[in-house]
Design goal:
By secondary structure, the chain is α+β, with helices and mostly antiparallel strands. The chain contains six helices and six strands, in the order αβββαβββαααα. It is 47% helix and 30% strand.
Length: 210
Amino acid sequence: MKTLASVLFLLVFGVAYAGSDVKIEGGEILVSPSVWTKTGVKITSEAQMYPKAVLEAFQNPGKVITVEEKISLTVVDLFHYRKETTATRGVRYSAIEAMVDVERMDMRVGGEDSFFVYPIFWLIAVAAFFVSGNLNKGIGIVFAVSAAAAAAVSAAAATTVSAVAIGAVAAIAAAAIAAIDDMELSKVFSIFFYMLMIVSAGLVYLPLFL
């Protein structure tokens, strides 16, 4: 009975002072309807790292207040990628223990799909590079370099660092061809460019096949 009475007191205490001034001092929560009063609620050293969350948790007994999140990006189809937010750590006030502590968790709190422009820039880069080698080298190279660079940047929104890096190298390779007069060397760089673009696309869309 004594334990039950203590729990009920702490629950009512937290709700009753929801509109009062609340502060943290000496690892404990104090409230002040008129003068600062100790609540008897202790705060762990880890939870003290998140003072705002601690005060919010105190006024919402049992509710976990998220303090750390993890964002993951995943390609879901050719033209879309998904951004998911997962709560990894939160602060909770336990009226039973009269304690505010940190909890580890793995709870999905949100997610949305966005349009993925990478394949568009990829196709423009490859097409422009083809044009540069068969029709107009100057204009084709400009478009190929620009599109390859844009593809690398857009890939950063939803894929691995390696895919971005390879796309960037492909853009550099395309730019280098503009300064090469030797036909044989130009062909080597051309093959190198196409290989890099294919590898980049492979890394971007690999998760779809795993």
